[in-house]
Amino acid sequence: MEHELWPTRLLNDYLAGPANDVLSLVRVHAENPARPWANYVAMQVLVALFIVVVFAVLRPRLSMDKPGKTQHLLEIIYQFLREQSEEVAGHEGPKFLAYFTTIFVFILFANLIGMIPSFESPTMYIYVTVGCALVTFVYYHLVGIQAKGIGKYILSFAGPQWYLAVLFFPIEIISHLGRPLSLSVRLYANMFAGEKVTQIFIDLTYIVLPVLFMGLHVFVAFLQAYVFTLLTMMYVGQAVSHEH
User: pLDDT tens digits for 62-117?
Assistant: First the structure.
């Protein structure tokens, strides 16, 4: 049994019933009904709450005349994602900026929360990264169908010429099915390795090396959030594009 983090312990002590009710709705039963909350689920809840609180606090402080340092940072991130969405996903990319920003911010905070003592990054668990990848998988197919119609969207898998459909269609299906695997394994492997390496050096040394590896961990956290978002932009761009 995995060691319970203190947020997980609180949820299991006081909210075990609601968790079991939710699991029963999808016909899933916890191995231990008295402790249904897992660390990675508790950490995701904490990340979501943290994001809501941070932006709720920042929103009233936003100013057109005297923007603060935090506002400048947020505007830089927003502008960067907007430019990337237009460059990678095409001229329609900014239409989907809300999703791109949401997935970037969630993964970034999930990657970084593990640096807080007694917390873990939920993205070091494959269940979490698979969940993010499947949400992206469903999302880009839905926007593709919305942009082209279900008939034209399915036909876009057949290639530029009808007589190539027999070759292109299975290749496209396999390619699309491999995308969630690629997204989830890349994020999971990097964050799992980063968490373990950082923790080992923190346990073995004191100040200098842990600081260096924590700096590297922050870099990897940003990089992996960006790579995941960049690939999402590419998939959305391909899905909504009307060109062969």
Answer: 888 788 888 888 889 999 999 999 999 988 899 999 999 999 999 999 999 988 88
3-state helix, strand, coil in the chain (%, to 5): 80, 0, 20
Please tell me whether residue 120 adopts helix, strand or coil conformation: coil
Which is nearest to 214 in space by CA: 226, 199, 192, 231? 199
Helix (H) or strand (E) holding 219: helix 208-240
CA distances from 84 to 17, 97, 104, 139, 140 (A): 44, 10, 12, 18, 17
The whole-angstrom separation of Cα 84 and Cα 95 is 12
> DSSP of 78-109, one letter per residue?
HHHHHHHHHHHH-TTGGGGHHHHHHHHHHHHH
Cα–Cα dist 198/210, whole Å: 7
Instruction: Give residue-wise pLDDT tens across range 13-46.
Output: 999 999 999 888 988 888 888 999 999 999 999 9
Residues whose CB is less than 8 angstroms from the CB of residue 135 and which lie 6 or more positions away in sequence, other chains included:
103
What gap in Å lies between CA 85 and CA 237, rounded to an integer? 9
